[in-house]
Amino acid sequence: xxxxxxxxxxxxxxxxxxxxxxxxxxxxxGYECLVEAGAGAKASIPDSAYEAAGVTVVPTAAELWSQAxxxxxxxxxxxxxxAAAPDGKTLIGFVWPAANEDLLKKMQAKNMTVLAMDMVPxxxxxxxxxALSSMANIAGYRAVVEAGNNFGRFFMGQMTAxxxxxxxxxxxxxxxxxxxAAIGTSVSLGAITLAxxxxxxxxxxxxxxxxxxxxxxxxxxxKDGAETGGYAAPSSPExxxxxxxxxxxLAPDVDIVITTALIPNRPAPELWTEDMVEAMKPGSVIVxxxxxxxxxxxxxxxxxKIVTDNGVTIVGYTDFPSRMATQASNLYATNVRHMLDDxxxxxxxxxxxxxxxxxIRGALVTHEGAITWPPPAPKVKAIAAxxxxxxxxxxxxxxxxxxxxxxxKKSLNRTxxxxxxxxxxxxGLGTVAPPSFMQHFIVFVLAxxxxxxxxWGVAHSLHTPLMAITNAISSIIIxxxxxxxxxxSFLVMLLAALSVxxxxxNIFGGFLVTRRMLAMFQxx
Amino acid sequence: xxxxxxSEGLISDGLIGAAYVVAAVLFILALGGLSNQEKAKRAIxxxxxxxxxxxxxxxxxxxxxxxIGQYVLIGLMVVAGGIAGWIVAKRVQMTQxxxxxxxxxxxxxxxxxxxxxxxxxxxxxxxxxxxxxxAGELAGFAATIAKKTPVELSILKVELFLGILIGAxxxxxxxxxxxxxxxxxxxxxxxxxxxxxxxLVAIVACFALGYLxxxxxxxxxxxxxxxxxxxxGCHLILAIGGADMPVVVSMLNSYSxxxxxxxxxxxxxxxxxxxGALVGSSGAILSYIMCKGMNRSFISVILGGWGxxxxxxxxxxxxxxxxxxxxVAAALQDADHVVIVPGYGMAVAQAQAAVSELTxxxxxxGKTVRFAIHPVAGRLPGHMNVLLxxxxxxxxxxxxxxxxxEDFPQTDVVIVIGANDIVNPAAQxxxxxPIAGMPVLEVWKARQVFVCKRGRGTGYxxxxxxxxxxDNTRMFYGDxxxxxxxxxxxxx
Lengths: 524, 492
Hints:
The complex is a heterodimer of chains A (about 525) and B (about 500).
Chain A: E1 2-5, H1 20-28, E2 32-36, H2 47-52, E3 56-58, H3 61-67, E4 70-72, H4 79-84, E5 90-93, H5 101-109, E6 113-116, H6 131-150, E7 158-160, E8 163-165, E9 169-173, H7 177-189, E10 192-196, H8 203-208, E11 212-213, H9 237-250, E12 256-259, H10 274-279, E13 285-288, E14 305-307, E15 313-315, H11 320-323, H12 325-343, H13 358-363, E16 364-367, E17 370-371, H14 397-432, H15 435-456, H16 463-474, H17 478-484, H18 490-520
Parallel strand pairs in A: 1-2, 1-4, 2-3, 4-5, 5-6, 9-10, 9-12, 10-11, 12-13, 13-15
Antiparallel strand pairs in A: 6-16, 7-8, 14-15, 16-17
Helix pairs in contact in A: 1-12, 6-7, 6-12, 16-18, 17-18
Chain B: H1 13-32, H2 37-62, H3 68-91, H4 97-132, H5 140-146, H6 150-181, H7 195-214, H8 219-238, H9 245-267, H10 270-294, H11 298-302, H12 325-334, E1 337-342, H13 344-348, H14 352-364, E2 368-373, H15 383-390, E3 398-400, H16 401-404, E4 413-417, H17 426-429, E5 448-453, E6 473-477, H18 480-491
Parallel strand pairs in B: 1-2, 1-4, 2-3, 4-5, 5-6
């Protein structure tokens, strides 16, 4: 079958759903690849690069739609595209079915099989095709770069001959994929980075990226992020008040604010109000990644960059991934390629729509003339439910010292008891045993102690050689046999001779095999 | 200091004593040297020199009472035994180390029994000669005994009894362990009804016989003790399953030491006592480390089986997902940090050379490859280290559990080869599991885990392993060696 990528028709869209690299992999799956002339131009992929990868370049969109069996796209198809499309094609791309029900009906009428990249469920197995995450990652990175572009100072603090430069202070609101990417970029540029999220469980992730988690002192039955597929849920009014109060406190202090807070299927929550913008220093920058859904900042204007009266720049672009078209195309094409990988279990270039597969079923929005959206709940939960954390009661200094004293006493008691019993036993032995025995006994006890201390020092990796060498030296029993061999009795001599024989096997065998083993241990 | 010495030898008592002290010190140095690989290569010579010194001094000390014949006999035996030992040591495969060690132990045990019986015979002879007034003509050990007081003789009898008892248990136990480890006997635990009672009765019988012997009964009591103790050794080890073998072999190692020490007491020879005590405590510590590695008490291991504990282990839901060699290869190509967890299955399949080759390839590509060794991986303490060393895996990338367990979250790919219980998360998560509390390698914290395994079955302990059902785990079925070879082909 043929997979084809048309040029994106949406204004300003620079991405493309097929790259020479992904085409190579698709060919291995048994697909033939087509691309519309100039589709990759804005993403810096010339037609010649496609041709070099064995992709057929088709001059017009109409030809591509008619020749290809599977159309891969980035944006949802426009009405014109659908109208011109032949019947019965398979389409893979962003669809946003919740917002585009009309479009769904039109595609259904054309008997199309449509897989929405934005509907891929968030389960581990589907991470490789999670285009939303790939795009969010780019958006987060680009947001910091865009902020830097509009910010008049360094991110990193420096001590120069011309004076001291303080580091920039960046606040990232919302620690999803985009937020975490923004945090990572900002930290690596050297800014002091603060981050906030309504889900307390992400504090660990935030801190692991090198940012500081803005902690809200608020008692609320925290909702488990796992219930909502890893996304944030709306918070209570009291919580929101507390949160805004915190932001108000931070506003005069921070230089750059990057907001990424989105709740699925709702307008973006308003988190950065007008009075906070007013409290910010002139020259500060706000990048609002939620601009498309109304923005987290009250003053954000979608697709625009504005400067407020007090000199704060607010960036409300909605096309961050498209602004990094090469990177975005590469990642998106790989996501699409993985989707096709799963659709083609036999690697024979024939897609199979397996309705039992959670991932495919989740992404499928129309199929065989029916609308299959919304999908049933997946069998596998997106993220394992977080286990309730048990709070260890903090022990006070007195409790701690009391506990330690108790432990010490216990161990002293035990040692004392052991010593007592040991001494009594030895005393008892001393009363009945003759001095010659006690002499040997002392030697024995000392040897056990020496052995104990020496053996604990042996490296674990050398335990097998240790066994082999102790084996060899335990044949010291040969000394006993040697002492007996001079006996006048034949039987004694025979047994002693046999013992010498066996001990010799052991001595030679044991030492040799130990040497053989030790010689094998080589350093790299 | 050694009353076993007699003055008609070629060298004086003092000189012999000095030789023994030096030998004992050399043995301690030999064991102490095993603290690291480079020192160990030198330290083994201390052991060899010590042994040579001890043997030479003893032969010199015995004198020429029995004429030149004894030297010929000793020489013959040493050469014959030496050649046999040499051949065995040269031929043995590193995977066969556990059974070799077990086999060697049996020899020490048997020698201890023989020497114990000899001591009795000599004692009878010496006492007869003493009452006949011809004690002066006695040579060697018999001459020493003739000088003993009645109390010393009683103590001698106790020591002799202990020497024979421990020696016999070591002898038969080691033979059974050898059989199990070499696959000549089934490695499953034999559970006779009332086995604990059986052991108890046998031990009581031994001690009763020991009492009779002290009371003046003859050689037959000691022979009977040897036979009953032998039976105990057999039964004890038969009841212990395959994966507990590391503990058993260390325990037998310990016993062979205590047997030597007991014989040392009998013969009044300090060198034997010191060496026996060193070996005995070494084996005991190894057993302790192994038991700790399994979170089991020494007693429960020795008494055998998993002891009918209630196995309320949780049923695992989910499915095992299979991966083929190409998928494993692809994951390895993308990985920077790889950890390999070998288990007994690697030794069985003789896969270590292929694993080493894999390691080398990956390292040549600039990836970090390390090995994680669980204390009870394999059938002998440190077994995996020796196998990997033989396959030329550098020892500084082979790490212990404590050293590497923290690093799994930063690891891209873990390959588990022929290991099961030591990577079972149930040990931490499921308090009802029979292995709950056992320290395990936390491989599931890595980004991706491949488990190389022969089939779908559970491990030695019969415990379901939830690791196999985790999202980030893929099963790589097949014989370990064949799988590694297939993987190497894919990496070309």
